[in-house]
Amino acid sequence: MRSKVAEKIQKETPEEVRIFVRQYTDIVLRINQILKAKGYTQKDLAEKMKKKPSEINKWLKGSHNLTLKTLAKLEAELGEPIIYTSREQVV
């Protein structure tokens, strides 16, 4: 059972913040899934991307906002899609 404090915080959290947290979590989980499947560490990824390991760590801890450009670089380096979008038009 949730505490009253947790329920209050959830009710006061704007919907866009909840969506952001859910989407960011999904992205980080997907990146970690790919790393694990390929046998890569965060350090390996940093070396491949010519980044500092601390920057990769910030991306995967959620303390740095990932841009679409960064996601594209990650997808190119990992050779796997990270996010999926619908190409169907909404009527």
Q: What does this 3D model show about the protein?
A:
The protein is mostly helical and 91 residues long. Helices cover 67% and strands 0% of the residues. Helix 3 packs across helix 4 (53-61). The relative contact order is 0.11. The mean pLDDT is 89.
User: Beta-strand level of the residues, as a percent range?
Assistant: under 5%
Number of helices: 5
Low-confidence stretches: none
Give helix % range: 55-70%
Shape: elongated
C-alpha termini separation: 41 Å
In terms of quaternary structure, the protein is single chain
Mean pLDDT: 89
Rg (CA only): 16 Å
N-to-C SSE string, H for helix and E for strand: HHHHH
Task: Give a count of the beta strands, DSSP E runs of length 2 or more.
Answer: 0
Biggest sheet character: none
Structural class category: mainly alpha
SSE layout and pairings?
Layout: H1 4-12, H2 15-38, H3 42-49, H4 53-61, H5 68-78
Helix pairs in contact: 3-4
Key terms:
91 residues; mainly alpha; 5 helices
Brief characterization of the structure:
With 91 residues, the chain is mainly α. It has helices at residues 4-12, 15-38, 42-49, 53-61, 68-78. The protein has 5 helices and no strands.
